[in-house]
Write a structure and sequence with these properties.
Strand order of the largest sheet: 6-7-8-14-4-2-16
Number of helices: 6
Shape: globular
Protein name: DUF2971 domain-containing protein
Structural class: alpha+beta
Distance between the termini: 45 Å
Radius of gyration: 19 Å
Number of domains: 1
Helix content: 10-25%
Number of strands: 18
Order of helices and strands: HEHEEEHEEEEEHEEEEEEHEEHE
Length: 278
């Protein structure tokens, strides 16, 4: 499929017709370390990492905005119920960590995601998050999270390197709907779903002036300051937390996880891995 750069490709029709997404998952899974599990439960927050700090250096490039990846924060998940050995190896503390499962509506307020025509699913949260930038660039405050949306895997530059800004009649429209939603096919084993937060509001309109072009869009001179955001989880979602021990987790790991859950999420379930490995 070839695009002329005048519109976002990540739409509800694209999700349904091209990606085969029939419905949003009700549960999402994340492979992580035992220490990270403890941090999540103690803080009751979920970390969103800035895209220029994640493990794929080719993430989220744009034709018209340099350092675009530094303007987007993501939380990465899987919707695959069965355990994935490559995910254990890559993210699960070398098979000794944990896999957590949480309901999709995990954030404060337990709002259900709604799918829109452009950009896919969106959730509103009963809390505000703020993204600061070096002055005089303006900070952003929002209670919206894009997602969960499934990542599309392609090596086609028409998908991977898109325009973000569209100009008409003295107005500039910033549209990062596609940004951070495409990865190379070598990552396709992850079958990733993402929540996403942008340093500039999605679909925002700006005067097409010097401030917008020389300050707002200049992420080098006026960078996004935080490398991560911490978004509150709804405490009730922890009652539905499901934790799977890594395939190589020993008795000491199991006891540590049991202790963490007993203290911070006593209604959570804990099960051993179904994968046998020496």
């Amino acid at each position: 499929m070839i695009f002329d750069g005048t519109e976002a490709f990540y739409t509800d029709d694209f999700m349904f017709d091209v990606m085969g997404v029939e419905e949003l998952p009700s549960v999402l899974y994340q492979y992580t370390s035992v220490d990270s599990l403890e941090k999540i439960l103690v803080s009751r927050t979920l970390r969103f990492s800035r895209l220029d700090t994640v493990n794929d250096p080719e993430e989220a490039t744009a034709l018209d905005v340099a350092l675009a990846a530094s303007s987007v924060f993501v939380s990465c998940w899987s919707a695959t119920e069965s355990e994935q050995l490559p995910m254990w190896a890559m993210y699960g503390q070398n098979l000794c960590g944990v896999r957590i499962g949480l309901p999709t509506n995990m954030f404060c307020g337990r709002k259900e995601p709604v799918i829109f025509e452009t950009g896919g699913a969106l959730i509103t949260v009963d809390s505000w998050h703020s993204i600061t930038r070096k002055s005089p660039a303006m900070d952003t405050n929002s209670c919206a999270i894009i997602g969960p949306n499934k990542v599309y895997y392609s090596n086609d530059p028409d998908y991977r390197n898109r325009r973000l800004v569209y100009r008409h009649g003295g107005t500039a429209h910033f549209c990062p709907y596609d940004l951070g939603m495409v990865k190379g096919k070598h990552w396709s084993y992850e079958q990733e779903w993402r929540f996403k937060i942008s340093a500039l509001n999605f679909g925002a309109q700006f005067p097409d002036d010097d401030y917008f072009n020389k300050v707002t869009l200049d992420f080098a001179a006026f960078p996004v300051e935080p490398e991560a955001l911490f978004i509150p989880l709804d405490p009730s979602c922890l009652d539905q937390l499901a934790v799977t021990l890594g395939p190589k987790g020993d008795d000491a790991v199991a006891e540590k996880v049991k202790h963490i859950l007993a203290e911070h999420a006593p209604k959570a379930t804990l099960v051993p891995s179904q994968i046998s490995i020496r």
